[in-house]
Amino acid sequence: MTPLEFVLLGAVILVAGCLQGSIGFGMGMLAAPFIALIDTTLLPVLVIMLAMVVTLIVAVMDRAALDLRGAGWALAGRVPGTVVGAGLVTVMSTTVLSWTVAVVVLLGVVVSLRGWRPRVTRTTQAVAGALSGVMGTTTSVGGAPMAIIWQGSDGPRLRGTMSAFFLVGSSLSLVALFLWGAVPTHALATAAWMAPFAVAGVVLSRFVNRFLNRRRTRAIALGASALGAVTLIVTRLFELG
Description:
mainly alpha
C-alpha cells in the first residue's frame, strides 16, 4: 500500500466509522468498495475487525437504549447465516456474491421507501439476522437487512441494538473465516493501523447525532443501504471494465 493509498484509506475509514457510530451500521457499505480497489484480499477481514472496534464503543455508549431481546433473536439467525456465508466465500466467486447482495438490498430499500415496513417479530428479526450473517461474512456489507427490519427505531435504540448485534455477529464472522482459513495476516496488520481512524470516526459521530431525529435516522439508514448496493455494483462493473 502506497502512502497516498494509506491516507485515502484512513480518510474513508474515518467517515465510515462516523456513519457506523451515527446509525449503528454502514462501515462495510462505505469502506468495502474502496478497499476492494486497493487490495481485495483485505476483504472482508479488515472491515469486520474495524467494525468490532466501533460497535464495541457504540454499544457501550448507547447501552441504555439497547433492545436485548431483539438483538438476541437477530443473533439466533446470524449464527447459521454466518456459517453459510463462510462456506460461500470458499466456493462462489465474489462477483456473483456481490451482485446477489446488491439486488437483494436494492429491492428491500425500494419496497421500504414505498411504505413497506415489516413487522418486527421474533421470526422476522431472526430471518434478517440470517441474511445479515450471509451478507456480512461474504461481502462485509451486512447492515441492510437489519436496517430494514429496525427502520422504525429512534437513533439511540437503533445505534445501540445494531451495535450489540454487529459486535457479536462480527466476532462470529471472524471466527468462521479463521476456521475456513480465510484470514490473511496482512489484513490483521492493516486493521491495527486503521483502528485509530475508526475510533476518531466514532468521536465525530457524537456531534453528528445531535442533529438526527427518528425520520432523519430512517432516511440515512435506508440511504446507506442503497448506497452500499450501488457501490458494490459500480465496483464490480469497474472490475469487469
